[in-house]
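User: quick one, sequence for these C-alpha cells?
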C-alpha cells in the first residue's frame, strides 16, 4: 500500500480553506483591534446586502462540495437559497474577536444550515440514520473479524443485501453523515465532534486541545490503514478541496460513486473510533472539560 502523504487529510475546525476555492484571506472591513467590530455590529461595515453579494461565492462553494449528496433531496436552486440563509446568519453572528476567519465561520454556518434543512425532512433523517447505523455496525464487526476494512461485497453480504442495494443505502446514509468534520462516536450528539473544538476553545482550554489531539491522532492512524484509493479520495476532498464531481473525473468514476465511497469511509472510521479502547479515552478526556 502506498504510504499516506505527510499531510494526512484530517479536517480541522481551524484550517484555512484551500486556495483553489477562491476564498479571500479576510474581509477588509473586519477590524480585529476594535472589539466592537464584527459582521453583525460594526457600525462602519458595508450594508448587509452588499456583504451577501460579496460572499455569495461561499454558498456556491459549499453547495458544490456537498454535490450529489444534496442533489438527492434538494435541487441546486433550493440548496443555494438555504445556503444564503446560512450566510445571513454568519453575517449577523460573526464577531471579529473569534479566532476563526470570517470565511471559515461562514462556511460552517452555511453548511450547517443546509444540512439542518435536509435533516428536518423526517423520512430522510430517520432513514439515513438507520442506514448509517446498520452499515457502521456491519463494518465494525467485519473489521474486527478480518483485521482490515471489509470490501463492499463483504459488507453487503453481512447486511443480507446485494451490492447495488448496499450502494443505495450508502447514498441515503450520506445525507446525514457528510463529513469527517462532523465525526462523532454516537448519533445522539454525544461524544467527540471536530466541529465542537473551535479555535477559541482550544486557546483557553488545554483539555479541549488534548481531546482534539487525541481524536486527530486516532483518526490519522486509521486513515493510514486504508488502501491507496481510499486515502486519495480523502486527500482530494479534505486537503485539496475538490468536489465529489471533480474527484470522480480524476478517478474516472461517477460523482455518485465517490459520494458513496466517502460515506463508507466516514462510517468505517467512526466504527473504529467507537471501539472501546479509543472511545473510552476520548470520552474520558471530554468528560473532564
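Assistant:
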Amino acid at each position: 500500500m502506498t504510504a499516506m502523504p505527510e499531510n494526512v487529510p484530517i479536517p480541522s475546525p481551524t484550517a484555512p480553506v484551500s486556495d483553489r476555492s477562491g476564498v479571500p484571506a479576510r474581509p477588509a472591513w473586519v477590524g480585529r483591534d476594535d472589539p466592537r467590530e464584527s459582521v453583525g455590529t460594526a457600525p462602519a461595515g458595508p450594508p448587509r446586502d452588499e456583504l451577501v453579494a460579496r460572499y455569495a461565492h461561499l454558498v456556491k462553494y459549499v453547495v458544490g462540495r456537498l454535490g450529489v449528496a444534496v442533489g438527492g433531496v434538494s435541487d441546486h436552486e433550493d440548496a443555494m437559497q438555504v445556503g444564503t440563509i446560512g450566510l445571513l446568519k454568519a453575517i449577523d453572528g460573526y464577531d471579529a474577536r473569534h479566532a476563526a476567519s470570517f470565511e471559515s465561520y461562514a462556511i460552517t454556518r452555511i453548511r450547517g444550515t443546509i444540512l439542518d434543512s435536509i435533516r428536518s425532512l423526517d423520512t430522510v433523517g430517520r432513514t439515513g440514520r438507520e442506514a448509517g447505523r446498520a452499515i457502521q455496525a456491519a463494518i465494525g464487526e467485519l473489521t474486527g473479524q478480518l483485521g482490515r476494512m471489509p470490501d463492499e461485497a463483504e459488507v453487503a453480504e453481512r447486511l443480507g443485501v446485494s451490492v447495488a442495494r448496499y450502494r443505495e443505502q450508502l447514498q441515503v446514509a450520506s445525507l446525514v453523515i457528510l463529513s469527517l468534520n462532523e465525526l462523532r462516536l454516537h448519533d445522539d450528539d454525544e461524544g467527540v465532534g471536530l466541529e465542537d473544538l473551535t479555535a477559541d476553545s482550544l486557546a483557553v482550554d488545554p483539555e479541549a486541545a488534548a481531546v482534539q489531539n487525541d481524536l486527530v491522532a486516532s483518526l490519522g492512524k486509521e486513515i493510514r490503514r486504508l488502501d491507496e484509493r481510499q486515502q486519495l479520495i480523502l486527500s482530494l476532498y479534505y486537503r485539496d478541496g475538490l468536489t465529489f464531481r471533480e474527484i470522480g473525473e480524476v478517478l474516472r468514476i461517477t460523482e455518485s460513486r465517490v459520494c458513496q465511497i466517502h460515506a463508507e469511509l466516514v462510517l468505517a472510521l467512526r466504527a473504529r473510533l467507537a471501539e472501546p479502547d479509543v472511545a473510552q479515552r476520548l470520552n474520558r478526556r471530554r468528560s473532564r472539560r
